[in-house]
Amino acid sequence: MCRPNPARVHAYWLGGKDHYAADREEAERILAVAPRLRDVALANRGFMERSVRCLAGRGVAQFLDLGAGLPACPSVYEVARSVNPDARVAYVDNDPVVACHGRALLAVDGAAAMVEADLRDPAALLERDELRRLIDLDRPVAVLLLFVLDYIADADDPAGIVAELAARLAPGSHLVLSHFSDDLGGPGGRRTLAASMRRHDIAMFPRGREEIRGLFAGLDLLEPGLTRLPVGRRRRGAAAPVAAGGTRVCGYGGMACTRTGTRWT
């Protein structure tokens, strides 16, 4: 493997093992331009764990992880099943390499599946046979959009994608969304970062807080609302990132419900 892959680069930042020398070199080149991205990736993973654990504790048994990337430890499936043994998880990604790897890992597990589909076509995604065999869309489902809309251009209407997904979910479903931002640098800072990432063949679209809040339009955003994600780091020997001294990074996360909202912790 001589060509870096974005999913394997991300796996490297998370401390995973599914990457090659080209991916590691590319990951370090990107960090030289945007050194906070590793912290952001870890913070996002911590946000996933807290959100999935919260929802599974409330009895949610179906999870749809869109733009899942390569498996990381702990996975959505592992977190959900640790709380709700009946939980089922469908992972979706449009990268054939990721889909192939995921199918190989999940081949023996009837409660999880990997689906190759494009988030920019929500209707087609939700009708995929392998997804519908596992996920019953007539019952509540938690849809995870974790640092994936960052790669959707304005021209592809990320807010419209979220709205269409939400419209097709059963009452009582949830949307968990996180998004990279660079508010400290303002619009100029975001443009600089996006231009730097494009030089590495990564189309990334950082957005401001209000733009990200707008992605929840029409949904009940649960307390404490849209919040900055705490920096993530790994203790020696630990599988999961933990918060580092309350420091914040330029990423936001929130959870919404398709009906009456309540506080989540």
TrEMBL record:
The keyword NADP does not apply. GO terms for biological process: methylation. InterPro entries: SAM-dependent_MTases_sf, SAM_dep_MeTrfase_SAV2177_type. It comes from the Bacteria. The keyword Methyltransferase applies. One of its GO terms (molecular function) is methyltransferase activity. Keywords: Methyltransferase, Transferase. This is SAM-dependent methyltransferase. It comes from Actinomadura miaoliensis.
